[in-house]
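Input chain follows. Return structure tokens only.
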Amino acid sequence: MAVRRLDPERLGDHLDRLYRAAWALCGSREEAEDLVQDTYARVLARPRFLRNDDDLGYLLRVLRNTFVSARRTAARRPRTEAMPESADPPSRAGDGPDELAEARELFAAIAALSPDHRDVIVAIDVVGLSYAEAGRALGGVKEATVASR
């Protein structure tokens, strides 16, 4: 299997999908923006070499690992009360208040799932990966396991 260098110039191609995945993981638009920024900072800090052509899968793994690391670090710190989220989710032309409220509830519900189930929902339904692609992105999870979750 050939090893190739991850092209930093092409990372922007995956920004929208990573942002949607981050939002589903975090449940907050602001946290999602920070998570994507932290993910890109981590990836761009040094050259990365991949064994396959799955840039998005690699970036999703880094995003998830960055999310888990941040949550572990935050769990060790004193907690503060979060302010209610006042910003609306990104909207498409024609979205009304009902659709925006529904999207906010959906992303909050996804963020509340267990990590295994949340990761699969994000990969399949939010990012749009196939079951096989999601399994690879989640670190070699079997396609049948992805389907059952």
